[in-house]
Automatic annotation (TrEMBL):
This is TetR family transcriptional regulator. Residues 32-51 bind DNA. The lineage of its organism: Bacteria, Bacillati, Bacillota, Bacilli, Bacillales. Residues 9-69 form the HTH tetR-type domain. The keyword DNA-binding applies. Transmembrane segments: none annotated. It holds the Pfam family TetR_N. The keyword Membrane does not apply. Keywords: DNA-binding. It comes from the Bacteria.
Length: 197
């Protein structure tokens, strides 16, 4: 990479980082190229030269964020952790990212952007789902997940949990001990309310 390419990369990354930080406090519809330009200390023309439109910039920012999340997910799943730790990570990975981009903000980004919605569905089908299925299969082989429970049942239970994630996190934040609350949720995921069988 020559000096021009390095400089161009630095400017592009600066624009994307600025946009990401602005997304965390404002919705995508409230962000203007003029605001990004002022905050990033680059001209509006520079932003248009690199990205073409605000929509393309937002797509690239979100895809970059999602790619980083997926890379961390894959690293963790392949990192020699116990099944319980892996399931806990799946259930609560959003806890880490919730303060970066809330589920409501992500929905707002996806609602009017079919390309971004397709991208998210593709990543889920091609990366996240197969890796999760592999982890569940490994748990069944090792006896950590009952043979009586199908992979589809575990996936369904995880999905039920994640569909209510915002509500569960809100309850956890209102509890006197957030970590204890979340540990209890993981315990119930594995053993129900009666403890280990």
């Amino acid at each position: 990479m020559n000096g021009f390419e390095k400089r161009a990369n630095l400017i592009k990354n600066k624009i994307m980082k600025t946009t990401f930080n602005m997304l965390r406090t404002s919705g995508p519809k409230r962000i203007r190229i003029a605001d990004i330009s002022k905050e990033a200390k680059v001209s509006q023309v520079t932003i248009y030269n690199y990205f073409g439109s605000k929509e393309t910039l937002l797509q690239e920012v979100f895809k970059n964020y999602a790619n980083n999340v997926i890379a961390e997910f894959e690293d963790y799943m392949n990192g020699g952790h116990s099944l319980k730790e892996k399931i806990e990570y799946i259930l609560f990975m959003e806890k880490k990212y919730y303060n970066e981009l809330s589920p409501g903000l992500i929905k707002e980004l996806l609602i009017d952007d079919q390309e971004l919605t397709r991208y998210v569905e593709e990543v889920y089908k091609e990366k996240t789902l197969p890796l999760t299925i592999r982890i569940i299969g490994e748990g069944k082989k090792s006896g950590e997940i009952s043979e009586d429970v199908s992979i589809e049942s575990v996936l369904g239970f995880i999905q039920l949990f994640m569909n209510q994630y915002e509500l569960i996190l809100g309850m956890a934040q209102q509890s006197s001990d957030l970590d204890k609350f979340l540990d209890g949720m993981v315990h119930m995921f594995f053993y129900g309310i009666c403890g280990k069988p």
